[in-house]
Amino acid sequence: MASLFQKNIQELKGVGEKRSRLFAKLGAPTVGALLRTYPRDYEDWSQPVPLAQAPAEQACVVRVTVVSPVSEQRIRSGMTLYKLRATDGRHDVQITFFNNPYTKNLLLEGKEYLLRGKVTGSFLRREMTSPDFMPADRLLPLRPVYRQTAGLTSRQISAAVRAALGMLPNPLPDPLPEPMRRACHLCSLRFALENIHFPRDRESLEQARRRLIFEELLVLQLGLLRLKSRGRQQTSLRLEVDASAEFFRSLPFVPTSAQKRAVAECIANMRGDYPMNRLLQGDVGSGKTAVAAALCHSAIASGMQAAFMAPTEILARQHYETMRRFLEPFHLNVALLTGSVPAAKRRELLAQLRQGSIHLLVGTHALLNETVEFRQLGLVVTDEQHRFGVAQRAALTQKGDHPHILVMSATPIPRTLALMIYGDLELSVLDELPPGRQKTETYVIDSAKRARAFGFIRKKIDAGRQCYIICPLIEDSESDMASVTQYAKDLQEKWFFANTVGVLHGRMRPAEKDRAMEEFAAGRTDILVSTTVVEVGVDVPNAVVMLIENAERYGLSQLHQLRGRIGRGTEKSTCILVSDAQNEEALKRLRVMCETTDGFRIADEDLRLRGPGDFFGARQHGLPELRIADMSADFALLQLAQGEAKELLVHDPAMELPEHRGLRAEVRQLFSALE
After folding, report:
1. Where are the domains of the chain?
2. Most buried pick, 10, 77, 220, 554, via CB within 10 A?
3. Which burial class, exposed, middle or buried, applies to 2 when counting CB atoms under 10 A from its CB (0-12, 13-18, 19+)?
């Protein structure tokens, strides 16, 4: 297979320069890549129905014999009809094709064919227009349907795949070692490739799918585990001082046992000969930043520097303020580096960093700049890691001699995805909320009840509380949703003329955003009308109501993140989801929000309802793209593949044995985009 990945797609019969560009657009520039471009679906041709039983307005398969030659009828310039009659033995059907002269040679009088399409017309005169067809003696029960691009049909892709299968060497080397295939009950690569594209039957298709899914997950796990082992080089940055007890004593609150446990797990890692590589996963408000601060304090007490990277300037600024507050009792120098820091201040900051007088540097992607040099970087913390690629994480760690790594995520990630995305990390979970936190009540209402919701908000404001209102759009569009700014203006004039209404959205300048958030945090703004940028906003314990307009437009995990902005104090909080959605799937999502505040249950449900492709929105997590595995449906195979990957690397860490050569090539290929 490896050599077929070197063969240009143009080596296939019928694929010229123009068509090769279309195949490249599909992600198949080579013969090998085409064979690994699997069908997105299959048409079942195995159950033909009599013409009399053909369902109305629905594609079906009929078995007929052609009883007339194809006649040609030109109806206007550039339009020719090709017509013929066929019968299933009891009823006739008139078949029409547009501008398809090839039907004369392909549909012959007296021969039997399978046709697939809609049967229309009346009981007395049945018709089919441009159906798909194949000779009845060449029955392919399950016909592949491929993802298409303009200018390239599924049938053309299918023909190219058939030609590509003909180029497979005999015998075909199999990247999966024979003992592994036997132990895991997997078919051969040849059988899998032939039956994923042109399955003999449903059972063969399932065997092929199982084998290819396992192989893809195995290769992914091998790649992630090898990334992990790269960091297994010994580090000189052993933690000498465990200052966590001192840190906990300095806190103005009692840490949860989950926080203490997570800190202890990390400290144990950092005291070893190898660098820590750990994911800290916790729901909104579970206290991850305090854990990170405890570790930074111990690292600094041991003579190291720490770096804390966040995906946005707003979040970086919030973490800077929080970390400064946590580390203030120890007189440590905490600095902030973002793209908006002026040049002169930046030069001074970088000089202090090189000298070691800055103990903790908090920032955005700006930390990755080559001018950023640490004297002794010992701990790297990244927040909302799914927004960074694996390569970015590696770039920051290269600024030290194998520093310890803590990855934090407030997005609860189902264990299936955590295994996939963070397969190279150990896992700590914060599964308790700090004491005194009230459960947030959540309700779904339609727009007819909006006025009542505004009345409820006014009562809360009169009692000295504050409120968030979330809108999906930033500026006017053709839809009936007003922009955030216009919406805020209408609120102020029609509903809350005696109150202060602030606005926050992603297109404001950083200084404007900061001012809007500072005004709200200080209590000078009663209502903050915002887009989802507030997901990563400052903590405002006095905000006890959140109303989310058009709630059906958001994923469950995003709704949960937004809801996490309230309920930060001891006062009971309320989240109101406004939606006129009639779609059952959307309503199901919103009902889940009312039933639970458990972020992990919500994440599992989100993955089940939306699928892994949409879970994070745009592909931000830096993983190589999978072609066939489905993270929500294939968890059992993922576990099996992970076990096999670990076992293989115990016996052959560099994958140098001859029987692992094929797998090593596949790992290199899958991860080539990350190198």
Report:
1. 1-42+148-170, 47-138, 175-230+634-675, 244-430, 441-596
2. 220
3. middle
Distance CA 535, CA 505 (A): 11
Tell me which amino acid residue 466 is. Q
Segment 396-406, tens digit of pLDDT: 667 777 888 89
> CA 582: distance to chain centroid?
26
* Pairwise CA distance, residues 273 & 342, whole Å: 40
Residue 402 Cα to chain centre, angstroms: 29
437 vs 378: which has the higher pLDDT: 378
Owner of token pair 């199982």: 210
Exposed/middle/buried for residue 378 (C-beta within 10 Å: 0-12, 13-18, 19+): buried
Helix ranges restricted to H, 495-552: 510-521
Q: Given 3.40.50.970, 3.75.10.20, 2.120.10.30, 3.40.50.300, which CATH number is that of 441-596?
A: 3.40.50.300
Residue 500 CB neighbour total at 10 angstroms: 16
C-alpha closest to that of 307 among 424, 402, 398, 396: 396
**342-371 exposure pattern, b = at least 16 Cβ within 10 A, e = fewer:** eeeebeebbeebeeeebbbbbbbbbbbeee
Going by their DSSP bridges, the two strands 119-121 and 71-76 should be labelled as: unpaired
Q: Which residues contact 636 (CB under 8 A, 6 or more apart)?
A: none
Distances (CA, A) of 564 to 120, 408, 434, 561, 657: 54, 16, 13, 5, 50
Alpha-carbon gap, residue 406 to 394, rounded angstroms? 12
Average pLDDT estimate for 611-618: 47
What pLDDT does residue 674 have?
47
Global pTM value: 0.60
Question: What is the band of 67 on the pLDDT scale with cuts at 50, 70, 90?
Answer: very high
The CA-atom distances, in angstroms, between 403 and each of 71, 320, 338, 377, 380 are: 77, 21, 22, 6, 7
- What band does 413 get if pLDDT is binned at 50, 70 and 90? low
When pLDDT is averaged across residues 453-469 and rounded to a whole number, the result is 92
In the chain, what are the helix, strand and coil shares in percent, each to the nearest 5?
Answer: 45, 20, 40
* Per-residue pLDDT tens over the stretch 294-321: 999 999 999 999 999 887 777 788 889 8
134 membership: H or E segment, kind and range: strand 132-135
CATH class of 1-42+148-170: mainly alpha
Q: How would DSSP label each residue in 214-266? A: HHHHHHHHHHHHHHHHHTTS--S-------HHHHHHH-SSPPPHHHHHHHHHH
Q: Does 244-430 carry CATH code 3.40.50.12780?
A: no
State the average pLDDT over residues 128-134: 90
- Retrieve residue 659's tokens: 């029987």
Burial code (b: 16+ CB inside 10 Å, e: under 16) for 238-260 equals bbeebbbeebbeeeeeebbebbb
**Cβ-Cβ contacts under 8 Å for 672 (sequence gap 6 or more):** none
What is the arithmetic mean of pLDDT over 6-11?
84
Tokens of 516: 């809007």
Beta strand pairing status for 377-383 and 404-409? parallel
Across 157-181, average pLDDT: 91
Per CATH, 1-42+148-170 and 244-430 having the same topology is answered: no
Residue scoring higher pLDDT (161 or 607):
161
Q: Which fold has domain 47-138?
A: OB fold (Dihydrolipoamide Acetyltransferase, E2P) (2.40.50)
